[in-house]
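Checklist before submission:
- one chain only
- standard amino acids only
- sequence pasted in full

Submission:
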Amino acid sequence: MSIVLPMFGTFEWQEFKKFMRMGLVFGLIVGAYWSLGALKQTVICTTLGPLCVPYARIFSMLGMIPLLMIYSKLLDVFTREKLFAFMSCAYAVTGLLFAYLFAQGYQIPSVAYPFALLCDSYGSLLIALFWSIATDTTLPESAKKGFPFIVALGQIGGILLPLGITALPKFIPYSGVTVLIIACMVPIIGAWYAMRRFLLITPADLLVGFRGDNEQQFVKAVEKPSFFEGLRTVRTHMYVAAIAIVCILPDFLSVVFDMHFLLLAHQHYATTELAQYLGLYGAAINGLTLLFLLCGISNIARYVGMAGALMLLPCMFLGSLLSFALFDHLQVLFGIMVYTKSLTYAFNVPLVKQLYIPTTHDVRFKAQAWIDGFGLQSSKVTASLYNMLLAPLQSYAGQLMGRLYHVLLSSSIGLVLVLVWLPVAYYLGKRYTDAVAQNKVVC
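Returned file contents:
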């Protein structure tokens, strides 16, 4: 029995159920991530001020280093399902601890910054671990249709949960950040249970990943695992470094846009109203992502090839850079952020995750975690350090002209980054296509 989904492809019945289960897991993870993200921004903006957002990002990047070291070690100790369970429970317990601290009135930098680390690391490590499991249990042909389907199902959680959780103050009297944090722990535990069910009831023949004819030579090359094994892989293999680049560049540009968006949003909203607005923002991103996927954006790769598809996103970012340079309004920045993030999630993420398929187990799990964790946090910090130029520019030229100078400089830098992004995307697409055709792993 087959299921035909015109926007994704044709699935065998058991294959369809496999991706439905994976979509449920991803939907709960994404929903919890966007809900926590809205709370993180609310806590930082209302407790410390929006200009402290770059400092929170720096703290998160530094905090990710020991967390990634622990994560790499745990990969050598636990099976993938046990590690997923352990990390889910650890985040749930830590989240409840922060809920208690906020309830006691500890809304201070020494609590707010670690809370930002909790939110950022959850989005980096749990999502990376999910996709590592997905790439380790899926063949290339199945991934072409299945990964966009997973992302589409994930957006439903990304729409419903942020809207529902951030709207709780309307229905629960005197509720604040504490209640919202507790509510975020429910989908985190739900994702663990859904992942456990997925691995238990999915047929074994559908949990087999890509194994290249030359894979053993790369496995033997790593004799002794270490904390920095994933980072060393990124540094020594051009293919993995190129994956890092196509992940980092859109993230860098988004953080630059995000700073201006948060400054304007903080001027219009405060506390729970800001959390609700940011929840709406997260739901809008996931809603547009879902719309893109339902319109068949993932099918583009079937017609133009992997290299052509990977090169489309930087071209699409050019329109956002132009709008960013010409307009300075909250709703325009809202639209830019929703458009760029939706394109990234609907188009770039499924393609990039497929790039890990013709790689070894360590690259799929360890290198991917370092890219999604330390690499993305580093890009956010770099963008945040750049965003700190806004304050001296405004001191020098005034509030309005300082913003204008910063926006024009950002657009120029963005154009240069797009010109770097394009050839890297072509290289990745070509290497992936050749590796799959020859049944070889790249590294």
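Reviewer check: Residues 303 and 309 are 9 Å apart (CA to CA).
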